[in-house]
Amino acid sequence: MPDTKYLYIEKCGSELLIVVDRLVESVSFYKLKEYFSVTSIACIERVEIKDLIVGLNDKDDNTLGLGTIIDLDPLNDNLTLFTPVQDIHKITAIYLGNIKVEQGEKDRGKMRAIRYL
Fold this sequence. Notes:
mainly beta; four-stranded mixed sheet
């Protein structure tokens, strides 16, 4: 575990999302699953979330639009998105997709996430 640097952790329903600097697949997450009372953990490298398509929803879980992640700055608790959604203050939930798209609309493939069930 000493090689794993946790940049961001959030409980999303029954799943725990963890963004790390570098994936170390030998790390056991069973204690985190028990502590957070989740059924699964999605562990993603920070570089994997760049250009990832996301759904942007309001408090009633209505989709306001889509966007792509430009950057995640966990130190400043800042997520930068490229999106046509004008009123960003209405966004209360961000759903991660698994397809990455460059801003020039070129498909970059799928995100590599490790899921621990």
